[in-house]
Amino acid sequence: MRLLQKAVPAQVPEHAYDAADRVTEGWMLLLKGPRLVLIPVILSAMWLLTSCQDSSSGPTPTDKPAEEAVIRMMLVQNTGDPPLPGIVPELEKQTGKRLGLTWVPENLYSDQMVSALANGILPEVLSVKAVDLKHPSVVNAIRAGGFWEIGPYLSRFPLLTRYLDPEVLHNGSYFGRVYGLYWERPVSRQGIQYRKDWLERLGLAEPRTVEELYRVLRAFTSDDPDGNGKQDTYGLMDRNDLVYGAFRNLAVYLGAPNGWALQKEGLVPDFYTEAYRDAMKFMKTLYHEGILNPDFTVTSKSQQEERFVRGEAGMMITNILSSGTQDKMSKLNPKAVIGIQNRISGPQGDRVWGGPGFGGLFLFPKSSVKTEKELLDILDFFEKTLAPEVHNLLSFGILNKHYTLLENGRVKIWPDTKTMREREVEPYTTALRLMQIPYLSQDKLSVAQEQINAMTEDNKTIAVADPATALISQMQAERGNELGEIITNATYLYILGQLDDAGFDRERERWKEAGGAQVIRELNESYKESERRKH
Predict the structure, then answer these.
(1) Mean pLDDT over all residues of the chain?
(2) Exposed, middle or buried by CB within 10 Å (0-12, 13-18, 19+), for 347?
């Protein structure tokens, strides 16, 4: 096991911290008089200071008039620097709500969310990433009645009723009930990014099948694709992520289910299928032939992208969002061209793995949202974000500052506003906008962006869903991480050549004995109950 820990280290943030450092600095936006200021805050103490006043010292926050109440939100910071206030004053003006926004870096967010739940000191609106929705702390808090069930209230809000997709709401439900507002994400943006200029130099066609994919990867490794006379490139640059990296993409190409398969005997985990084993064998071949970067088990997402940009490899099997990658690569090599492809055909035709249709949920803790009136006031904020004026603000920013309107009524975004938009608009688009509604549309998109949009739309027709998305297993909630590590480690060791088929089968049985058999049983019971509710 010590060898395994070296090959497959725990995926902790680069700025890891121990128990003594678990109180982590965040950033909060608040109005101070007429001015909006960005202030650093200590997360564990911040909610306490803003929500728990001594009753003898004056009125509590819930005693304030509605217009003075602050809706505090804990949001995911996907950028390197905290967002600037940007559109927030205008957002508060248009919605009539005061906002206290705390930004937590993405790589620290899950730990901070779990810590906040454990402490019971929470904002009025808690963002929960899709990957954390079945975390024990979240499931147990919902089971214990710690969050508002909002399903019965949604019909009071015409825009929420009109635009929320019932199927996506179901995917994000717990025990058949709706507790959260989802922030929409495309069903699938999976695919490949590859060096199109290398492909053309080698006289190869764009890969469309798994077999062609392998041939291109091998050529990118062995045939001097960059023309420097050296064999110093990898075909594939991958990272330490079996889901969002190459592995799940390849597994689904080869016919594996997306997480779970619904078979005659019921729900079965993907790693009990032959296609999953085929994917391990494929990756093992890439590893042992030197096509795959040998340090993929310890390569982070940012490192993967940086090394691809530097020209160390010819392909990433991850997603088709190539615009940012192309911009970075062009600065280093103006002649470099990235191509994308979403359809790679396998034994069952063209397939990609699909998500639930959202990136996460906004949940509303009862410890902070004390009354139904307060809940309705918060839901009213989200209702107003779907109205044209507010939605356009979240999507494009402030008119004549972040964008202009052309005579044809379309949006024109000028290149010189890019940096400003990245700090003042886009973080709010990502973190606060529930969905994209085409009240306005951009005048002209780049050819690359048009291609990305078209492939993203096309993926809807070939996406493989996970039938267990909305199902709950108490064992999975309590021991899911521990159980998942058994299979993750076994998969890595198989690819690295340190486990054979019999060894992998033993690890599967160990998973069952450690609680996996109960997970299968509970998810199948949950599925049957879900089907009964439908009828």
Answers:
(1) 88
(2) exposed
Question: Where do we find the tokens 């619904």?
Answer: 262
d(CA 102, CA 27): 5
Rounded Cα distance between 312 and 233, Å, is 5
| Predicted local confidence at residue 248, as pLDDT | 97
Cβ atoms of 347 and 115 within 8 Å: the answer is no
Query: Which amino acid makes up residue 144?
Result: A
Nearest in space to 294 (alpha carbons), one of 229, 221, 224, 230: 221
Give the pair of three-digit tokens for residue 360. Answer: 């996460």
- Rounded Cα distance, 192 and 320, in Å: 6
Answer yes or no: are the C-beta atoms of 297 and 241 closer than 8 Å. Answer: no
Q: Are residues 357 and 168 in contact, defined by beta-carbon separation less than 8 angstroms?
A: yes
Report d(CA 359, CA 104) in Å as an integer: 16
Neighbours of 535 (CB within 10 A): 4
Cβ burial, residue 442 (10 Å; 0-12/13-18/19+): middle
Is residue 473 a contact partner of residue 269, using CB atoms and an 8 Å limit? no
- Residue from 245, 148, 241, 255 nearest 193 by CA: 245
Per-residue pLDDT reduced to its tens digit, 451-471: 999 999 999 999 999 999 999
Closest CA to 136 of 483, 508, 461, 504: 483
- Is the pLDDT assigned to residue 124 strictly greater than 60? yes
What is residue 242's three-state secondary structure?
Answer: coil
Residue 68's pLDDT is: 61
- Of all residues in the chain, the percent with pLDDT exceeding 90 is 77
> Could you give the residue ranges of the DSSP H alpha helices within 342-386?
372-385
The 10s digit of each residue's pLDDT in 504-532 is 999 999 999 999 999 999 999 999 998 88
pLDDT at 79: 80
pLDDT of residue 466: 95
- What would the mean pLDDT of 236-251 be, rounded to a whole number? 96
For residue 533, the model assigns a pLDDT of 80
Strands 35-42 vs 25-32: parallel, antiparallel or unpaired: antiparallel
d(CA 134, CA 156): 28
List all residues 6 or more positions away from 149 whose beta carbon is below 8 Å from its beta carbon: 177, 178, 179
